[in-house]
Amino acid sequence: QVQLAESGGGLVQAGGSLRLSCAASGRTFSNYAVGWFRQAPGKERDLVAAISWNTGTPYYADSVKGRFAISRDNAKNTVNLQMNSLKPEDTAVYYCAQGKRLWPSNAYDYWGQGTQVTVSS
Predict the structure, then answer these.
(1) Residue 28 burial by CB count (10 A; 0-12/13-18/19+): exposed, middle or buried?
(2) Cα–Cα distance, 36 to 98 (Å, whole number)
(3) Most exposed: 12, 19, 44, 90, by fewest CB within 10 Å?
(4) 106/94 Cα distance (integer angstroms)
(5) CA–CA distances in Å: residue 36 to residues 64, 106, 118, 121
(6) DSSP 8-state secondary structure symbol assigned to residue 77
């Protein structure tokens, strides 16, 4: 079983940027998809962005298109999520997950512990 660790969350003003990272232990991301999910209090956990490790093919939810960018780093075995033009509605706990494919969300089997992102207005 793979272990996933998120980092990079924090507090930022609306319009600012954050960069989240997801690092894997125990195995590589090869032959898998890596996704970022988020969950606000009282809300469902939703897929925000995902990437195929081998091809780099990305997926973005409509709510973050043009603002977020997902990428992979082969040398460090990590997946990053660059979040720009942040809005208060982006406030949530963000989770990294590994799965069999980019979509649907139930393709993801292994999860990190989550990192808090708070965007002030």
Answers:
(1) exposed
(2) 9
(3) 44
(4) 17
(5) 12, 13, 16, 23
(6) T
What pLDDT score was predicted for residue 32? 87
Task: State how far Cα 80 lies from the chain centre.
Answer: 7
Per-residue pLDDT tens for 22-45? Answer: 998 876 667 789 999 999 999 999
Residue showing tokens 């989240």: 20
Rounded-to-integer distance, Cα 34 and Cα 78, Å: 10
Q: What SS3 class is residue 104?
A: coil
Both tokens assigned to 116: 């808090």
CB atoms closer than 10 angstroms to residue 42: 5
Residue-wise pLDDT for 52-85, tens only, equals 988 899 999 999 999 999 999 888 889 999 999 9
Cα–Cα distances in Å, from 71 out to 28, 42, 54, 56, 63?
A: 15, 29, 12, 7, 18
Helix (H, G, I), strand (E, B) or coil at 19: strand
